[in-house]
Amino acid sequence: MSSGCPPQSPAVAKSEVAIEGECPLLAATFAYWDNILGPRVRHIWAPKGDQFMFLSDGDVTFLANHTLNGEILRSAECGAVDVKFFVLAEKGVIIVSLIFDGELKGDKNTCALSIILPQTELAFYLPLHTICVERLKHVIRRGRIWMQKGYNIISVLSLEIVPIMELLASMKTHSVPEDIDIKDTVLNDDDIGDSCHEDFLHKAISSHLQTCGCSIVVGSNPEKVNKIVRTLCLFLTPAERKCSRLCKADSSFKYDTGLFVQGLLKDSTGSFVLPFRQVLYSPYPTTHIDVDINTVKQMPPCHEHTYNQRRYMRSELSALWKTDCEEDIPPDTVIHTDETFTPDLNIFQDVMHKDTLVKSFIDEVFMLKPGLSLRSTYLAQFLLLLHRKALALLKYIEDETQKGKKPFRSLRNLKTDLDLTVEGDLHIVMAFAEKLRAGLHSFVFAKSMYTSMQERDVLMSF
């Protein structure tokens, strides 16, 4: 496989990463275009242990050359990151490569951060592609600052490459199946009181839908955690279920940004500490569910979540830019900057908005006889109803704003006309619509949200 490859540079460093379980990732590479030698590999990350398909360093170099060839005349905006997806059938691999500009040794170079998987893992990887790319894009933003200042970019990239290897390994063994049997969920119980309190289940499902189907389920009993995880995943699409993960019985996984639903076990002291930064960088707000004490908390809605996320991201990159020494701010530290933005670490709030949609669904679904397909059919009808309400809401806003040409001013009329006067119902349908048309929350609520934030900042300054 390595015949015809250019000689491997003696400067190439390699990190072997110890991963628990079978990692489907063959290797990750950081390469750059050298104006004299052409494409050169700077660093290779590879899972440690026996691989069912082994790549030599020469093979990795050949694949890195394939991703960088033709990029020398790349024309892109400053700071842009291009995502390239290669399927090399003759090599039996797929390559996901992120191309960006950066400075190495004082010269501007075209760089590529790539992950390499066997072609047989294509169906497994595709649902997780967006998650991996978004996480790698942000570590590249931080890495470009490190490169500009002459620091070691490899240490920054390792902070995301290694967790992505761990994520893919965990998803290989503990991902939620595409088809969930309702018998393995709370919705199959004879009575709502069998496994959880009615109000708790109602709050959990309602908040789960209000936060676009993103939830964290924590607890001490893995069976109870996984039962709630599977129950919440009933309200997701098959593709979203492939981006959800069950908890591991003998040890806890780390929180992973981007998953829809994930089960996490508490430690021996009965606690689980969520990483603030990773939770804030999740694409959607998140619901926090504790099955031990039956509590449900949720993050602010999409428009406020996006606002906080972008402010924190700018604050983090600004703080990294102002460092005078590589050791001043470790690359994975939560940033606090008094002059621009101090994040509120208490990002989970009580579920404030009651709804009638989920309440009616739960009351009615347990009237149906368990053990038959009736409850599954009723669930499918409920999800179809929410989907149609979301489409109607989008069409209503399009007509009222002439497809975005005018600002939206008639939220009260929308609630009345679409029978969404209950705040919880509105938030659920808005969340469904947000996934159909990204940015809807910001379009409808952003102006009023900015005003309220400015008023709060003025009051706090007195």
How would you concisely characterize the structure shown here?
The chain has helices at 57-68, 122-125, 129-148, 153-174, 198-210, 222-233, 238-241, 276-280, 302-321, 357-365, 374-401, 411-417, 423-436, 440-460, and strands spanning 13-17, 27-34, 38-47, 82-88, 93-104, 107-118, 215-219, 261-265, 287-290, 295-298, 349-350. With 462 residues, it is α/β, with parallel strands linked by helices.
Summarize the structure in words.
The chain has helices at residues 57-68, 122-125, 129-148, 153-174, 198-210, 222-233, 238-241, 276-280, 302-321, 357-365, 374-401, 411-417, 423-436, 440-460; strands at 13-17, 27-34, 38-47, 82-88, 93-104, 107-118, 215-219, 261-265, 287-290, 295-298, 349-350. The chain is of the alpha/beta class and 462 residues long. Among the domains are: 13-174, Beta-Lactamase (2-Layer Sandwich); 353-460. The strands form two sheets. The chain has a six-stranded mixed beta sheet, sandwiched between helices. It has a five-stranded mixed beta sheet with strand order 8-7-9-10-11, with helices on one face. A hairpin with a 4-residue loop joins strand 4 and strand 5. It is globular, with a radius of gyration of 24 Å. The N and C termini lie far apart (69 Å). It comes from Dicentrarchus labrax (European seabass).
